[in-house]
Predict the 3D structure of the following.
Amino acid sequence: MIKVEYKDTSERQEIIDQYKDKFLVEDQILFDGNFLIFSDTKPTPPIVYICVPQEEFEFLKQESTEQGTCGTSCIHR
């Protein structure tokens, strides 16, 4: 991880251009300064779990079994 401080939007853009080979993972705007955080590795998107009512879950479970899909109790998006 690389943390670089910037003062204004033009300097921010210059830093982003300078680190084109890295992945921008965070833009921190704090009381003690503004910072861009870069990484060598691409961040993985989070898995989102959705709660569904039991009746709907049973329907989805039955539907997925009929279609031959994963059949797990979680819906991934």
